[in-house]
Amino acid sequence: FKTNYLLLLTFLMLINLGCKDSSKDVAKPTGTTKEKPNIVVIYMDDLGYGDLSSYGATEIETPNIDALANGGVKFTNAYATSATCTPSRYALLTGEYPWRNERARILAGDAPLLISPQQQTLPKLLSKAGYQTAIIGKWHLGLGEGDVNWNDTIKPGPNEVGFDESYIMAATQDRVPTVYIENGNVVGLDKNDPIQVSYKKNFEGEPTAKSNPEMLTLKWHHGHNNSIVNGMPRIGFMKGGEAAKWKDIDMADHFLQKAQAYVKRHKKEPFFLYYAMQQPHVPRTPHPRFAGKSGMGPRGDVILEADWCIGEFVKTLEDEGVLENTLIIFSSDNGPVLNDGYYDDAVEKLGDHDPKGGLRGGKYSLFEAGTRVPFITYWKGKITPGVSDAIVSQVDLSASLADFVEVEGNKTDSQNLMSTFLGKSKKGRDHVIIEANSRTALRSGDWLMIPPYKGNAVNQNVGIETGISSEYQLYNLKDDRSQQNNLAEEEPSKLEELVNLYENLLK
Ligand code: NG6
Ligand code: CA
Fold first, then answer.
1. I need a labelling partner for 204 at 20 to 30 A (CA). Which of 95, 219, 397, 425 fits?
2. CA nearest 181: which of 195, 192, 199?
3. From the CA of 340, how far away is ligand 1's center (Å)?
4. Which three-class secondary structure state does DSSP give residue 179?
């Protein structure tokens, strides 16, 4: 009887297992048993740790991003890999620390592609798992192989490193060429008015901010004195392409509409969308609907605009019936800056707002405000809302999402923290390396060590402390969040421990 009973039990279990598997298989196109929700990375540009009401801002309301933070996991110790854009984006997409690649620095608008078509990337590994992949928004990782012809299909670019679709601006809103590029082709280009771009010299007869200041509707403070587009002085020289030039005040709406259309087109298959928003990077050009709304000048206004866009985007996911099947990851590429080269009232109208959220430094800085950024994971009905103090880095998304969709990921620098991202574990990294202008520092547990460097302690143009000192710096971030007390001398053994670890990690 016993054997029969056991056999019966085994039989029932097998049937049960079989049913489970086959029912799951029916729903999943690529046949694995794991869930494959859509994945959306919403990546803002220069948004600071303290720029959101859910992260403690009191002078500005960001209800739509707050809804993600309060309905998902809000990370308080999450890092961009770098205090500037290109390196952070490089790490996000490749899973490799940016300081390993010498060229991973702020790129000119005509720089060659930084990611090699042979490299592992997030969109590539998600493609392997059956995802459709797209980038909409800011690229800033270079295009082509040098000497780009903007009037032909531009490649290699996002489509050659894993994205099935791309709708991008090449670099930044303040850099030429000021045109949208769709799958390698400049949108709306009139072949009779070809585009030329140079970062070395002006094209004869073309007005610049220096030669024709009367044409400017926005004044430059430092840099940003080359070609003039829509009354705004830019970095780099551009000629032609008149019909293709973007309208700055429509950029947010434009990318949003592209993102919404993408969701509608791809809602039936698992998709990965990298929605790389341009706000609040300079030039800050809120649509008139938002101009003046924050009382903080354009910087505050474009944060409100971005928050609205995110609300609309989430609504689209909901209306299309895919919100509950979409994991949303929200973050920023580096910390905040007020005056980043234009006189746009960001400093004058700041009032009591603290974009750094009490941290020290800012964009370009090795101090915490350079790289510690808002980071939110949201998956309606799947992630239990909470706050996580785990140390995580954007470089970890690669290995984590690879594990999530069950494909091989690049694990050199990227750690699999998927259960932490899903709020199921509180465990983060033991340590992380951060970078600013190719200088690195180490966070390990509650401690942050910055090795001695040559250079200026303050970036005078932007008014931000760089974190550079000729002495070792050691901070206990738990007791001293704003990095006021350098404990390097008081805690020699702690310092030695971190220096040793740092040197080993850099090898
Ligand atoms: C700097 C620009 C700054 C901004 C930054 C890139 C000058 C003087 N400053 O070189 O305005 O464009 O590059 O920002 O040109 S990032 O967020 O894309 O890294
Ligand atoms: Ca940035």
1. 219
2. 195
3. 7
4. strand
Please check whether residue 249 is in contact with residue 286, taking contact to mean a CB–CB distance below 8 angstroms.
yes
Euclidean distance between CA atoms 328 and 317, whole angstroms = 11
Chain-centre distance of CA 79, in angstroms? 11
Cα-based angle 135, 139, 142 (whole degrees, multiple of 5): 130
CB atoms within 10 A of CB 487: 18
Give the residue-averaged pLDDT of 234-238: 98
pLDDT of residue 411: 85
Q: For residues 505 and 507, what is the distance between their CA atoms, to the nearest angstrom?
A: 6
pLDDT tens-digit readout, 304-344: 999 999 999 999 999 999 999 999 999 999 999 999 999 99
Whether 434 contacts 371, CB under 8 Å: yes
Distance CA 196, CA 62 (A): 40
Distance, in Å, from the CA atom of 358 to the CA atom of 361, rounded to the nearest integer, reads: 10
**Helices and strands (DSSP H and E) totals, the chain:** 10, 20
Ligand 1 pocket, residue 84 CB under 6 Å? yes
The residues that bridge with 328 in the sheet, in sequence order, are 40, 378
The residue whose CA is least distant from atom 16 of ligand 1 is: 85
The answer, yes or no, to whether any atom of ligand 1 lies below 6 A from the CB of 221, is no
Ligand 1 atom nearest the C-alpha of 235 is: 15
Whole-number Å distance between alpha carbons of 133 and 129: 11
Nearest Cα residue to 88 out of 397, 474, 358: 397
Q: What is the mean pLDDT of the chain?
A: 94
Report pLDDT for 10. 52
Ligand 1 atom closest to Cα of 282? Answer: 11
Give me Rg for the CA atoms of the chain.
24
Which parts of 282-418 are beta strand (E)?
A: 326-332, 375-378, 386-393
- pLDDT given for residue 11 in this prediction: 52
Asked if residue 70 has pLDDT above 80, the reply is yes
Structure tokens at 153: 């299909």
Please give the single-letter amino acid code of residue 419. Answer: S
Task: Give the C-alpha separation, 146 to 215, whole Å.
Answer: 31
Question: How far is it, in rounded angstroms, from Cα 496 to Cα 246?
Answer: 52
Rounded CA separation 389/17 (Å):
38
For residue 224, the ligand 1 atom closest to its alpha carbon is 15
ipTM greater than 0.90, yes or no? yes
Question: Measured between alpha carbons, how far is 422 from 416 in angstroms, rounded to an integer?
Answer: 12
Band of pLDDT at residue 409, cut at 50, 70 and 90: confident
Q: Which ligand is nearest to the CA of 234?
A: 1
What kind and span of H or E run contains 503? helix 492-506
CA distance 369 to 361: 5
